[in-house]
Specification:
alpha+beta; Jelly Rolls; Arc Repressor Mutant, subunit A; 2 domains; seven-stranded antiparallel sheet; disordered N terminus; AraC_XylS_family_regulators; HTH_AraC; transcription regulation
């Protein structure tokens, strides 16, 4: 198994009775456009958050101690699951209301505002999975193109398998990564746990694929295309040429390019650049600007020309890489 940049797990914890400090923590760990508003008597407000991050997966065990309201704009880059361990969470997303409790988890798509009524008695697992990672997992499992964002169900049962198994897996991963010197903290082991969380979620949430009738299913991708995609995701920093990728696929360069345009929508090297850009963006958005530099991260992900990299990054994310590193909250 290849270990990519960003596979080393990170554990961050906060205990505070300061609402602003708790809000800033959640924005930095999860989403920028997030509002936390105490409801009624806030004298018992006490935020407790333990968050572990491993590649495209972020898992937090969160509680507030008093009743609050949380409002989040479009997630855009991620899917999200809230699984209460105690108490009941009232959730509204895309016109659907869900009561989440220890028997049922709430699920959120990248598009659509989220409104939460979160009582002080509710302690929950907050699981963020980056959009590309979950979609790529489902895409690979089905061996076909899927429509993004996924039309997943708004909740799932966690009182029995597979939901119960997935939550147990997430809790075990979280507990291991919060513990000092745990085996799961080793990058190679952590990467395996991470992949299990993503693949388990893909098998747990409802979606309009598989045996269900779905006019959304795209054409199956040829084996040559899938083989090339697997190679690029396994080693995104490798300096592939068009000829290298064609050799991996076992076809000529022009044949592979045409297959990619038909089944992926872009050329092989354009797709590889997108993987790298997403990797850099993920790493910069989680890094301490005093400890890393944009150039170091870019080089790790295979970019050798910083000027072209910066232009491509701005075109994809609407900001410079230094802005992501400096201003991400």
């Amino acid at each position: 198994m290849a270990v990519h940049p960003g596979d080393s797990p990170v554990h961050v914890a906060l205990r505070t009775s300061d609402v602003d400090e708790a809000r800033a923590f959640c924005r930095k760990m999860f989403y920028g456009p997030l509002q936390v508003t105490p409801v009624g008597d806030a004298s018992n407000f006490f935020f407790a958050g333990d968050v572990v991050m491993i590649g495209p997966v972020t898992v937090g065990q969160i509680s507030y101690g008093s009743d609050i309201r949380v409002n989040i704009a479009d997630l855009e880059t991620s899917y999200h699951v809230l699984a209460p361990l105690t108490g009941t969470l009232r959730s509204r997303h895309r016109g659907t209301a869900v009561l989440a409790d220890p028997t049922r988890a709430a699920v959120y798509r990248p598009i659509g505002d989220i409104d939460l009524d979160w009582p002080g008695t509710c302690r929950l697992l907050s699981v963020k999975v980056e959009r590309a990672a979950l979609e790529r997992e489902l895409d690979a499992a089905l061996d076909q193109q899927i429509v993004s964002p996924l039309l997943i169900g708004e909740s799932f049962d966690v009182s029995e398998a597979p939901g119960r198994t997935w939550v147990a897996l997430v809790r075990l991963l979280h507990g291991e990564l919060c513990a000092p010197d745990a085996l799961a903290a080793q990058p190679r082991m952590a990467a395996r746990w991470r992949d299990m969380v993503i693949s388990g979620l893909a098998l747990t949430v409802e979606h309009p694929y598989g045996d269900e009738p779905a006019g959304l299913q795209g054409p199956r991708r040829p084996r040559t295309v899938k083989r090339t995609l697997d190679a690029m995701h396994a080693e995104p920093s490798r300096q592939y040429t068009a000829g290298d990728l064609a050799e991996i696929a076992g076809v000529g360069v022009r044949v592979l390019q045409e297959a990619f345009r038909q089944h992926v929508g872009v050329s092989p090297l354009s797709y590889l650049r997108r993987i790298r850009l997403d990797g850099v963006h993920h790493e910069l958005s989680r890094s301490d600007p005093w400890q890393v530099s944009v150039s170091d991260v870019a080089y790790r992900w295979g970019f050798t020309h910083l000027g072209r990299f910066a232009g491509a990054y701005r075109a994809r994310f609407g900001e410079s890489p230094s802005q992501t590193l400096r201003d991400r909250r």
